[in-house]
Every structure is written in C-alpha cells, then in structure tokens.
C-alpha cells in the first residue's frame, strides 16, 4: 500500500548526467562515512575539493597579513583578498567591489545593518517590517533594535501555502515604515519571495529593503542591481564555501549612512585619545585582521558555482525537490509544508508525519544514512504560524541525486513501520 | 536498520504501550519539564503515602525516546521510597553525563544506546528532571 | 665601521637545534617564494602543516553543521566543535569550557565586552582605563562605549622604556573606575605587562580587568586562573591557527552579566513576536552557524604549540629577540623602542633609523627577502607617545632562526647605504 | 638587491637632491596632502603668471618615494600651462590606476617600478594630489 518511489525523467536528462559526475568533486562522498545521503545543505553545504585546496594553497604558499605590508607575501595577500571581493561583487552584479563588506556570516551582516544603520535611523513610533517566515538571524536583530529605539516590529503575514500575498502586503507599508527585512528563500518552506516586486513597491514610499540571501545566493542567479535592494546578507558556508566568512552588500549611499559594528585595527584613519575618524568604505566595516583564507575559499566556491552555471544548479535542484515532493506526497499521513505543486520553490522541503515526532524521523533516517534535519530550524515565529513545534526538513544541493530521494522515502516508510500505530 | 539502532524493542514497547500515562488531576503534586528547542513537554505527577511513591504518572508530548523514558521512569520509581527515587534519578543522570557504562538499573539498560547521541540526551532526561522537581516539591511541603 | 652580525650561543644550544628542525613543519618555508625571512609574525603567524591538514580533513571527511543534528556527521561536528572549546579552555587553564566563547577574532571579543558588558554597566562619570600602548582594537571599542555612556576614557601612562609604572598606576584607579582594559604584550614595544599584579591591585577596588592577549596566548604560558582576570581576548591567526576565529574567555559571573553582541540562530531558547529568551552560556554569545573548521584548526594549533612547550617557545623567541637587539643596537643611527637590555620583552622589536623612513626600510628589507612591517601598527596613541608617526618592526616566532637576523641586519645596512646621507 | 628594485638611480637622485624643495611663504597658493596611515605630509605651493606655472615648490616629510615623486612632479610641471599640468597629473594618476604600461612623460618613467607595489601608490600620488588641489584653488580664485 505504501508507494514505491517513482522513477522520474531525471536520470535520462543529459544535464542530470553531468551533475552525477560533479558529485565526484565533493570528497566527503568518497571519503566520509558511508552511505551518505546528505539532505541538510540548507544548514550547511558540503565543499568541493577546489575550495578545500584553495584554503590549503593559501596557507601553504601564499599566506601573509592582508593590507599595507610591503613585502611580497603581504602584497599578494592583499591582492588575493581584494580579488576575492571583486569576484563576489561580480557574482551578485554589485556596481562596485567597495559595496561588498566581508563579515563572518549572514548573521553578522544583518546585525551590522541593525545596529549600524537602523539604530541610527529609527525614531520612536517607527516601524520595521519582517515576514513571518524569517530565520532568527533576520528576526532577533530587528526585535532588539526596535526595543532599543521605541520602534515597532511588524510582521508581514503568510497565506496557507506559506506565501506572501504581494498585493495585500503592499498596503501594509506606510509613512512610519523605515525598513523591510525579508528573506529571499525560506529555509523551512522553500518559498521564493518576490523580492523585486517588494522592493519596487517599497521604493514608491522610499523604504529601504534588506534581503536575507543566506538561502538564495549560490543557489540561483541573484543580481542586486536588478533586485534594487539596499542591503543583502549572505554566508559562504551555505554555498559550498568555508565557514567563518560571509558578506554584506550595501548600496553606496546606504553604507555611507552606516556606522561600524566592530571597532579596531584597520578601520580608522586617525586615532586620538578623544576621537577618531573612520577609514574609507568598505575597510571601515572590517575591523581586525582580515580572514584571507576565508575570502579566498569563498571566491573559489562562487567561481566553482559559476563554472557550472547558476541556472543549471537551480534547475537541477528544482527537479530534485519536485521529484521528492511527488514521492513524499503519496506517503500516507504526511504533511508537506510550503508552496504546493505547480508553485515555485527552492530545494528545501519540510514535512511532518502523523503521530511521529520529527526527531524520530530524522534519527531513523540517520540510521539509514540519510542526513535530514528536525527542529524549528531557527524559525520559531514560522512554527507558531504552522501550529507545530518542529518539522523534519530535507534540503537539496547540486551534489544530490535520485538515490538520495529513494533512501529518504525508504527511511520515512521505515519510521512509519517502527513508530506508526500498531 | 543497523544493529546499534536506538529503536530497540524495549523502548518501542514503552512507546507503543506507555505505562502510567494519563490524567494527573488526582496526583498530590505535578511538575513540568520542557525543552524549548523542540517543543517537547512532559508533566510528571506523584502521589505518595508515608514517604513512599504510591503512584508516578505522566502525560505530555515528545518524541518516542522522551515518552519511552517517561514510561520507564514511572515504572521504575513507582513504589520506591522518596529517597530511593532521588538516588535512581541521580544515577540515571550521572550515567548520561559520564563514561560509566553500567546502567543504574537493568530495566533502564535499553536507554544505553542513546548515550551515543548527545543531541538526544535531553529527550531521555526530561521526565527525570520533572520527577526531581516533584520530589523537591514534596520535601518543601513537609 | 658597520658591525658584522655577532655570533651568539644560539646555534650551539641543543634546544635551538630542535627548533631548526621544527621549521620544516611550516610548508611556507619550503614552498613559498624564496628567500623568506618572515619577521612579521606579530601581524599574523605562519601555519604548521598539521593545522592546514586538520582543516582539509575536516572539510574532506567530517564536515557537517554543528549543534543538534541527529545524523553522524552532525553529531561528530558538534563533538569536534566542543572538543576544540575544551582544548582551548585547557590551554589557558579556564575553570570550565563554558567560559570560552568562540568569536571571529580578538577584535570581536573586545567589542563584545565593550557593547555587551561595559555598555550595561557604565554610568555617566564612570571611567574605563586603558594604557597608552593599546592596539586600536583594545582602544576604539572603549572610546566609543565611553562616549555612548557619558563615561571617561582614561590613559595609563608609560615611562621612557615603554613600561607601565606599576606603583604609580595603582594610584590611578578609584571609585569611578569600572574596567581596566590592557594588553599583556605590546605589539609594538614587546613590553610584557605585569597583568597579575595589575589585577591584584584592581581586585582591591573590585575593578574588573580585561586582558588583550592577542600577542601573549600561544607565545608564553598563560593561565587565566593565575592571572585572575575577568575577561581575556585572543585570535587564532597570531598563534599559528587559522584566520576568522578567536575567543573570549570570561569568568562565569561576568559572562552572566554580559548581553550578546550578535543575535540570531543558535543563541535563543524561545522566540516570540514580542520578546525572546537567550540560550545558556556560551551558546548565547555565538549567534549564527559555528565555524567548525576554524575551531578545529585553532585547537590543532594550540595542541601543536603545547607539544613543543610554551616555555620552550618563549625562551627560544626571547633568545632570538635578544640577539636581534644586540645586533641592531650597534648599528649607527638606529633607535630601538621598548624595554632595554636586561628587561623582559617578548619577540617584538620596533626601531627607526635616522633619516630613513620606515616604509623605505621595510621595502628595502623586502627586496632582501626579509618580511618586516612598517607603520603605526594600529597603535597611533603609542606613536604619539613615542613622538613618531611610524616605526619599522621585526617580530619573531618559533620558526625563526639566526639567519633571519643576519638577513635583517644586512637589509638595514643596505637601506643605510642606499638612502643614508651621501 | 634585485634588478627590479624600486630604488633606481633616478629616484635616488631626486631623493638625495630634491628639486624645488624649500619654503613656501612666497607662493601664490599652498595646499597639503597627507596620508594618515603613515603620517606622511607634503605641501605643494605654486606661483603662476598668466596661466603658466612659474614655480612649483614643495616641502614636507615622507618616504624616499614620496619625496622623489614630489621632486619629479615639481620639475615636470614648472613652466607648464595650468591646463597642461592638470593633464599631466591626470595621466600620471591614470597610469597608476590602470594596466597601461606607457608613462605619461619620459622623465617620470622611473616611477614605473612602483606600480607593482599597490601599498606604495599613495606615496607616489601624494604630491600630485596636492598639486591638483592648488590648481583647483587657482581656478576658484579666477
Ligand atoms: C595587541 C593586539 N591586540 C589586538 C589585536 C587584534 O587582533 P585581530 O586583528 O586578530 O582581531 C592585535 C593584532 O592585530 C594586537 O596585536
Ligand atoms: C534564511 C537564513 N537566514 C540567515 C541564516 C544565518 O546564516 P549564518 O548562520 O551563516 O549566519 C540562515 C542559516 O542559518 C538562514 O537559513
């Protein structure tokens, strides 16, 4: 009575065949514990060998302190660091490399805007808008700055499918709205928000927009000039890059309005006992010794992705998630969250199974070699909206394949066999 | 399914046929343990007479391990003296927080496989920590 | 007339011979551009192969998201991350691993205390004390928080040798003093400050002390319980570890008084639309996806250093800097800064040469394969004290040797030949 | 010393024997360029007559490259029309900010090796940027 996983067109598609070969670029699938059906890329992606090697190469051959050293290692360190910035600027089509601020993560990037920009611009009674689907990293910084400034945190509601009603939401923003902070892709629902349209309507009222791009950049083509957003935040580790590095993109006029979050070495021109003057942008926002190998590894990752093609990656992952959706939706007692069939979604699929706790689903999956996540995914406000305390989540990336889905379905069926009503 | 699965028969039996699960209206004292990280919540109620736990009952929601552990807890502690229940709970918790291989009680041995999974420790301990609080509460009343 | 570099006992010392062999642990000396006399370790240290390999190994075999995943890769990621924390706690003899907060750097660590602790505890008219030799990273955060809170930033003066007069300084602190923030080792002068004594006298007035340990941890034995400091900040990259990671040590009661600097995923228990509750310490201070490979590389670096022995490293570097001091001091027209002969100093030596700009000294040194730094070293207040706008700086680490000093002396003599008065 | 050293004879000659270095009290207009990062500071003064730079003089402190560049600048621009001086400065700066190999003027060719050292670009440009400001200043006066 339980469905057999359906065969899809996937394996006959020549593009898919290329992707099967790309899997070999990721050493973890050859050398890590086996079997490994890694379906937790939305938490953090695996790394291709080229990224890992670029980090080793940096430390083995080229390592020196970034900025203003006068010897060859220091000069090449600065060059590599700035070349990485340029690669990233190019990747999201920023107008200039100076609009890319290296941070440790999307989380730091968002906190920088909250404390460095919003705190300077919020008056009591003002509003910041976030959606009900935001990750805690794009929620808590706004909650805090609103409290600090006597402003109000307002919530853009979702419909039953986990979508933002664009027409309705336009009516929400008004004279008191100072910022809209919204994710491009939900890390739970897989929803792809219509950022371009939201920005366009926000522009009519001069409301700046920050885009949380942790789940979008590196997964689909993202063009900040096309989106016309004011700020955009992301992390390298979700797009096959190293941990400990991310960036904030900002329009030049917005960055000029922003105070640094961290003060320290490298971000000042003149320091006196009484006062100091900040260095130029983006150095102003990068206090402390720059993370050279992180920047180099990040740039290598986006070059790798660009080499494959962002459209191809997006399509491949969409095919996979669609196949997963089809296979999972025919399991008895399953609830799938987010956009239904026919609606656009990214490679993230959350679900629950009647009577089985998501922790048990994930744990039994783990015993099958299937790595999925269970929990609130740092989205408690969304969980409240869905009326659950947690979900199971499978997320896909370019290195996944049909067997991963087959294994996932088998694991879910096994969880039902073990824990379902007897 | 690998042989070191945590989903062993003993646990599954407690999950599917929980002992002492039900309403707590008639208990002397009820305390709640909750894990905000996963939304799990176990209420433990005790009824005691002359320093002995006549009844230990629970209700709530949680994963199979959380519920099985609650069921096993209620079974192992019903009929114990307060002091004995306290000791058992302490030993169970010590077992989970140390490298000591020996379970505090044969009937709890099935929980052993979960010690390899630190992320699920809290699932096992939730009911026991709620039990501790009921025991604290009873002592305060005296 | 110019001195020939003097031979020292160094090469005949059996310990020194061991160190010569250790140089082979650092791939850059075999595979980087040659010759390389790397005398800029105070800016950032080179990495031994074991550190580089631990990072590759992590990404190749063991990579997964840290915290609460239920599948083997996620479980081992959490274990490795927490084991690294434990290694670091052990390294500085912290009472518990929970007192180690991973940050991106010493700079972030200090900003965390400034905004998370000091901003909560400063009243108008209160004082924060820093010394005249502080790095901008241990100066600017205090300057800002004092401005924000109407407090005063006070300066502990230095004597002619660049030392803090302990007896005099004790008299400085008073009822309004809320914090002393001081470096253990000056990154310009090489001065080693008497932290233990400063803390002891501060304790008598209940004044907390933050130690900037960017130049001390990993270079000499550091025991936070012995120092009895309240906070201590450091970066991995200065002690042969990777970039993009550091830590803040704090006494438990101080950390409990500290608000997080960054908000986001992983640092909350419950999130509601109106308010949220923080997670336990140290998770509370580590918003965002943890940097697993960074933590692992950091722990590998300190294990490497511990394997050699911190006392041995300290002694070796002291021998080198003493030899350098002797050789340099006999050069005509040179000015050496910091503690003179017979006084304790770490492996950092700043100097200037009459009539020759430090940039030229460093550039000509670079043409000799000698990597030294020229500039204000992020210590403008100290430069003002010294009455110069910049210095040249040579800094030593365990992989340096006598040839590096010979090459440095030759480079300086060449700079004099080229640019000295004709 | 390697053959691609920046410390070539031409530069060293300007450093050791700077042209047009001295007091600026009798100049028509003086402007200062400074680099807070290294404390270098160059003041450039000009005297002009009928749209021609009669005198370009400088003083200040800086590294050898900064001072040599100031000396070369003063030599190359003295006697030029304002407009020509502006163009030369623009071409010099473009040369440093592009991959174009050809120097704007044979007498400035010795600065070329420094283009490989981005950290020292500012040393070369300091005097030229101060010159630009004097030219701006003269135009504003008209
Ligand atoms: C004494 C001192 N404190 C703080 C720092 C800041 O360290 P980081 O740049 O790694 O944050 C440095 C080094 O740059 C330093 O030398
Ligand atoms: C939608 C979204 N925003 C923000 C973040 C925060 O990213 P990081 O933890 O890398 O700072 C994440 C991932 O954790 C995310 O999924």
Topology, pairings included?
The complex is a heterotetramer, with 2 copies of chain A (422 residues) and 2 copies of chain B (142 residues).
Chain A: H1 14-22, H2 28-31, E1 37-38, H3 49-61, H4 72-91, E2 100-103, H5 106-121, E3 127-131, H6 140-149, E4 152-156, H7 166-170, E5 177-183, H8 195-203, E6 209-212, H9 224-227, E7 231-235, E8 246-250, H10 252-256, E9 268-271, E10 276-278, H11 292-308, H12 310-329, E11 334-336, E12 348-353, H13 358-367, E13 370-371, E14 373-375, H14 380-386, E15 391-395, H15 402-419
Parallel strand pairs in A: 1-13, 3-4, 3-5, 5-6, 6-7
Antiparallel strand pairs in A: 2-8, 7-8, 9-10, 11-12, 12-15, 14-15
Helix pairs in contact in A: 3-11, 4-11, 5-6, 13-15
Chain B: H1 9-16, E1 29-35, E2 40-49, E3 52-61, H2 64-77, H3 82-97, H4 121-141
Antiparallel strand pairs in B: 1-2, 2-3
Helix pairs in contact in B: 1-2, 2-4, 3-4
Bound molecules: pyridoxal-5'-phosphate (2 copies).
What do these coordinates show?
The complex is a heterotetramer, with two copies of chain A (422 residues) and two copies of chain B (142 residues). Chain A is α/β, with parallel strands linked by helices and 422 residues long. Helices cover 40% and strands 15% of the residues of chain A. Chain A is built from 15 helices and 15 strands. In chain A, strand 9 (268-271) and strand 10 form a beta hairpin. In chain A, helix 13 (358-367) packs across helix 15 (402-419). Chain A is globular, with a radius of gyration of 22 Å. The model of chain A is unreliable at 1-12 (pLDDT under 50). The mean pLDDT of chain B is 92. Chain B has a three-stranded antiparallel β-sheet with strand order 1-2-3. Chain B has four helices and three strands. The longest helix of chain B is centred in the C-terminal third of the chain and has 21 residues, at 121-141. With 142 residues, chain B is α+β, with helices and mostly antiparallel strands. Chain B has a single domain (3-141), classed as Sufe protein. Chain: A (Alpha-Beta Complex), CATH 3.90.1010.10. In chain B, a hairpin with a 4-residue loop joins strand 1 and strand 2. In chain B, helix 1 (9-16) packs across helix 2 (64-77). In chain B, 42% of the residues lie in helices and 19% in strands. The termini of chain B are far apart. Chain B has helices at 9-16, 64-77, 82-97, 121-141, and strands at residues 29-35, 40-49, 52-61. The chains are: A alpha/beta (422), B alpha+beta (142). Chains in contact: A-B, A-C, A-D, B-C, C-D. At the A-D interface, helix 4 of A face loops of D. Bound molecules: pyridoxal-5'-phosphate (2 copies). One pyridoxal-5'-phosphate sits between chains C (105-107, 135, 137-138, 183, 187, 212, 214-215, 235, 237, 378) and A (265, 288-289).
